[in-house]
Amino acid sequence: MAKEPVRVLVTGAAGQIGYALVPMIARGVMLGLDQPVIIHMLDIQPAAEALNGVKMELVDAAFPLLKGVVATTDVVDACTGVNIAVMVGGFPRKEGMERKDVMSKNVSIYKSQASALEKHAAANCKVLVVANPANTNALILKEFAPSIPEKNITCLTRLDHNRALGQISERLNVQVSDVKNVIIWGNHSSTQYPDVNHATVNTPSGEKPVRGLVKDDEWLNGEFITTVQQRGAAIIKARKLSSALSAASSACDHIRDWVLGTPEGTWVSMGVYSDGSYGVPAGLIYSFPVTCHSGEWKIVQGCVCSANETSSFFCILHCVFLTQSIAFWVGRLVSRLVNLVVQNSYSNYVLVWRKEICNPEYVA
Ligand SMILES: NC(=O)c1ccc[n+]([C@@H]2O[C@H](COP(=O)([O-])OP(=O)(O)OC[C@H]3O[C@@H](n4cnc5c(N)ncnc54)[C@H](O)[C@@H]3O)[C@@H](O)[C@H]2O)c1
C-alpha cells in the first residue's frame, strides 16, 4: 500500500540552498524512494516571485513522489501540518563576514518561525536548522518553541562531517563511502573540531584506523583540521557564494539518517542539545557523534580525546558557550523589547529598557 505523504517545510526556499534542496526532497533523496512528499516552501515577500518560479519548476519536473507544493510568504500557512522543517531561510554570511555578524539579524526571524512551528506543525515535527549561525539559531528556536521536545530540534554539522570524509578519501585515494566515523565537535563554524581518532576505512583486509593508514600526524593534526574548518570560507572565495549543493545534500543526509536510522557500526555528526555528555553543559546545541534508530538520535559515548586534544576541546566548548549565551540573552531582550514596543506606550518602553537593560542583574 502506498505511504501517506510526509509534509516537508523548507524556509528560504527561493535561495540557492533551497533551489538545490527541494528537487532532492522531491526525488526521494531525503526520505526514501517509496516516500511521497508534499513540499511547503516559505520565503519573504521580496522573493515571492522567485519562489513561485521554483514552484513552477517543481511542477514541470513531474516528480512522481511529489504530491503537492505549498509556496507561500505566510509563516502560518508554511508551518501548518509539517512533519519535518528544514530552516534554511535567514541572512547569509557574505565574503569577509563572521558568523557573529549575522547572529542578530537571525534572532528575530527564528523567534517568529519557532512560535509558528510550535502552534501549527504536526505533532513530533522534526526540525533541522541550516541557516547560520546554525547552532545558535537552533538554540533560539528551542527557546521560543518550548512545547517542541528538545530532542526534535537539531542543527546541521553533517556538511562538516562529509567534508572531513571527503578530505580523508582524497588523501588516501579511497572511496568516500569506505570512510566512516569521523566526528565534528562543537559549532558549525571555524571553531569546530574535526576528529579522526575513531575514524576507519573499509579496506580489502578489513576496517583500518584512519591514523594508521594516513601515517602523517602532522597533516591530520594541522592542515586536515584547518581545511575542514575553513572549507566554507574557501568555497565562498571560489564561488563568491556560500556552499549550496553540498549543504542541500548534507541536509538530506541528516534527515534521512535521523528518520530512517544510521547503518550498524556507523555514526554521524549532528548538532543536538547536550545532555551533559563529554562535559558539555546540558542545554547547549552542540555537535556530537550520534547514532539514530526509530527516528531518535543518541549520543555515542566513549569517544575520548587524547591529552593534546583536550585543550582544543575545551577551547571550542568555550566558544560555543559564549556565542549561545550571548544569543540566548540577546533573543530574550529583543523579544521583550519587541513585545513592549507593540503593547505599551513609549514611556513604558523607556522605563523597562532602563530597568531591564541597564540593570546588570538581569543579564547575570
Ligand atoms: N549549516 C551549514 O552547514 C550551512 C552551509 C551553507 C550555508 N548555510 C547557511 O544557510 C543559509 C542559507 O544560505 P543560502 O546560500 O541559501 O542563502 P540565500 O541568500 O541564497 O537564500 C536565503 C533565502 O532565505 C530567505 N529569507 C530571508 N529571510 C527569511 C525569512 N525571514 N523567512 C523565510 N525566508 C527568508 C531569502 O529571501 C533567501 O531566499 C545561510 O544562513 C547560510 O549561511 C549553512
TrEMBL record:
Molecular function GO labels: L-malate dehydrogenase (NAD+) activity
InterPro entries: L-lactate/malate_DH, Lactate/malate_DH_C, Lactate/malate_DH_N, Lactate_DH/Glyco_Ohase_4_C, Malate_DH_AS, Malate_DH_NAD-dep_euk, Malate_DH_type2, NAD(P)-bd_dom_sf
Any one GO biological process: tricarboxylic acid cycle
Superkingdom of source: Eukaryota
Amino-acid positions noted as binding substrate in the UniProt annotation, renumbered to this chain: R93, R99, N132, R163
Catalytic activity as recorded in UniProt: (S)-malate + NAD(+) = oxaloacetate + NADH + H(+)
Binding locations of NAD(+): G12, A13, A14, G15, Q16, I17, G18, D43, N106, V130, A131, N132
CDD domains reported in the protein's UniProt record: MDH_cytoplasmic_cytosolic
Residues annotated as domain Lactate/malate dehydrogenase C-terminal: 157-309
Database matches in PANTHER family: MALATE DEHYDROGENASE
Protein name (database record): Malate dehydrogenase
UniProt organism field: Erythroxylum coca (Coca plant)
